[in-house]
Amino acid sequence: MQETLLNSPTSAGRTGPIVAVLAAAGIVASLTQTLVVPLIAQLPAMLHTTAADASWVITVTLLTGAVSTPVAGRLGDLYGKRPMLLVSMIPLVAGSAIAAMASGLVVMVIGRGIQGLAMGMIPLGISLIRDVLPPQKVGTAIALMSSSMGIGGALGLPIAAAVAQDLDWRWLFWGTAAAAAVEFVLIWRLIPAPPVSEAATTRRFDFLGAVGLAAGLVALLLAVSKGSEWGWAGGSTIACFVAAVVILVAWGMWEFRSPAPLVDLRVTISRPVLLTNTASIVVGFGMYAQSLIIPQIMQLPVATGYGLGQTMLQMGLWMIPQGVAMMAVSPLGAKVSARYTPKVTLTIGCLIMAAGYAGATVLMGSTWGLVIATAVSGAGVGFAYGAMPALIMANVPLSETGSANSVNSLMRSIGTSVSAAVIGAVLTGMSVQLGGHAIPTENGFIAALLIGCGAALAAAGIAATIRSTGAKSAERPERELETAA
After folding, report:
1. Which of 27, 344, 387, 424 could in theory staple to 340 by disulfide, Cβ–Cβ 3.0 to 4.6 A?
2. For the residues 99-121, what does the mean pLDDT come to?
3. How far apart, in whole angstroms, are the C-alpha atoms of residue 221 and residue 243?
């Protein structure tokens, strides 16, 4: 059938505040990913539990974020992206407040799980930009909003480290709650609400599809994130992998038959969208691998011969240039996309990431060397993250942008989860005992960096095969798009 979605771009004079508010919302949401990283070693004592159980403080946010992201995207397509942005901000405030008041593991896990429900804000914001900004402003705004996931993660680390080192850890969560509350007010006051298409308002939400996808993703991500702890050949890990395959296959069959699917798989499996999502998994892998490797090298004692002896706070501050680089290159990436197509931008970004990893292997003996290498990789991430939603929106109907961007964001999250498992296994497998603790060897770090480099090169290869859709695909004029009946 033919489906037309009318939107009303706002005036150019209001674009600055709109982009700033949406980008800030993405940064606040992505802070939840690195918020507890400086606390990992302290969590068992803080929550009176074991290290294995304390790891759920990180895992639960990953699980709820993965489940809520595609659901939020579809609800945004059906009922409006601005209302869903406001709804998504509520669990971030509530979850942060619950975590701040936690004195035991159960309450902390509940709070962190509720926090993860806000991760759908980033793809919602990307889709909303397309609806409310003038066409000539869309490319740059999308690039900045998409990069906010990486920016928030990079900048959140030094902030969290500073608070954890000098203040009560609860201020991390109270601060996040306050920032989310301010963002709620700003979205409510400054972000316009574009009309929802008439076709979208007549569709129903696919509850069975949402339950099926949630169950499949939980099983898959549990296996990936807990495999090293449970044992990759252990019964629990294998059971989760098998359950994931069975559930997701059944879910796919249901989605193909559903008249109003949660995810339109006919659009998702089209060659450009499928290749972009595949590249997103590998880019997510490459982006996250560095955040697992570089902080360890910086904080290991100088006595190891390759550690740089930095404190937690110093390490966090050294990582700031990475986030700044992501933000700085976003407008440049949008210009490259406008002139040469987002495919070119994605390919360039992945190659820059690979160069950063390669540089880190030869510069890891110097703090400044690692700063330069991470900044280069950050620039590559900025290019790549800005190009992926532009590629997605160039190849899906306008009424599917929220759902399609959410699936793309989900693919990045799956990539980061796989990265954590693979890099963790490599570093654990190539370690030695020092002072009663197992620490990765220098060769282990080099191997992990080379894996990250290889992932970035693989992503560049995938990106190069994506069909070009025109230089200004992300800013194309409104037109009728044919969707599957």
Report:
1. 344
2. 90
3. 11
